[in-house]
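Lecture notes, unit on protein representations.

Consider one protein chain, 274 amino acids long.
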Amino acid sequence: MTVLTGVKAVVQQASEIPPVAHAEAGRLSRTEFERVLVVLESLDGADWQQQTYCTEWKVRDMVAHLAGSMTGSTSLREFVRQYVTHPYVKAAANPVDGTNRLQIEERANHSTAEVIAEFRQSGPIAIKNRQKLPWLVRQIPIPVVGNFGYLMDIIYPRDEWMHRYDICAATGKQMVITPEHDGRLLDLVLLDVAQKLKKQLAGRTIVLHITGALNGTYQFGHNVEPDCTLEIDLFDFHLRASERISAEEAVRRTAVSGDKTTAHWFLSNATVLY
């Protein structure tokens, strides 16, 4: 952990970030789909066998998951098969692991071109279907996740964004970042972190400065003087928030001023669903 000095910026109170609206979620989903597709279409040769931050998955496994996830939203019947009734889902300690296993195994004998084609063809249908879900259906609770609306509007585009980074990091491909799209997805992660930690802050205030491909400063808590200020690269923050790296590794990648115990507590707990 290094010491941070002299960081001054306009501070956004993380708990006051506007939540996503359903129509906006559709736009984010379409943009993310298009960006993921560009990356997938650039893969060749050894790219497919590169190890990703998801330690059990190589790039090919990850693309199979992405294709399967899109196909899972092309019809109610396919969604139920993948996420509810399949034996893998019922047998897994975490049902998501069962769905992921199914998606990867069912595409094991498909060519890479076929897997990309499935993602390309299923994506627009999946996004349209997710946008058409009635309000009452979107309120149906899902254990751990929250409800269907949260899954469709927040988790799906966030998951795709993170996997886009996983693939780019593994293969050296360019990760296209824009404030309007990627910055908004970052804000929604930070809003979730703020909501998760609201009752745990216990009077503490943390300032988080995101650097690198995007820049922004966010505050958790309401004291005028923060207990600590952290500076961390955009991608390192997402790696920690998605639990791809440990809190200890995140500490090593973070510059801190102020109380280091509070900084470690924040990095240990600033994780959300991806």
